[in-house]
Amino acid sequence: MRPLRKQRISSLLRAEIARVILVELRDPRIGIVSVLSVEPTEDLKEAKVFVSILGSEAEQRTALRGLEAARGFIQSHVGRECKLRETPLLRFILDDSIRRQMEMEERIRQVRAEDEAAHEEVTSAMDDPREDASTREDTGDEPRAENGADGAE
Fold first, then answer.
1. Which of these, 36, 54, 75, 117, could form a disulfide with 50 (CB 3.0-4.6 Å)?
2. What is the model's pTM?
3. What 3-state DSSP class applies to 93?
4. pLDDT at residue 131 in the model
5. Can you give 22-82 as a three-state secondary structure string?
């Protein structure tokens, strides 16, 4: 199949599956589901539907089971609306890339906070007021000359 045709079919399937899930399904197990992408096979007999589901892992598993149970219903609507020669068999796959991205962003925030705290610590240690010649007390200690010519022979 040509790449452009496959891309158009993928986009069409994604939009229709998302519409059916959002508008047509009444299953209480299925919460907030986003259809991220659809990858049909070359012969259009099957299609992987990558979904993101909002909620805990238990809620995600429950919603995925609900989608699997509603697969026939979704396929029949897709077949009617998309007007393809054959309706692909849909396989729902949980895509946790959004969760992984959020975890990675949190780790980056933590490392940045630790780095800033360490930087502040180093900066505050270096910012001790340095004495200049006008504020130094006269202790009577004169710096010794390096060459040993300090007048005491």
1. 36
2. 0.65
3. strand
4. 47
5. HHHCCCCCCCCEEEEEEEECCCCCEEEEEEEECCCHHHHHHHHHHHHHCHHHHHHHHHHHH
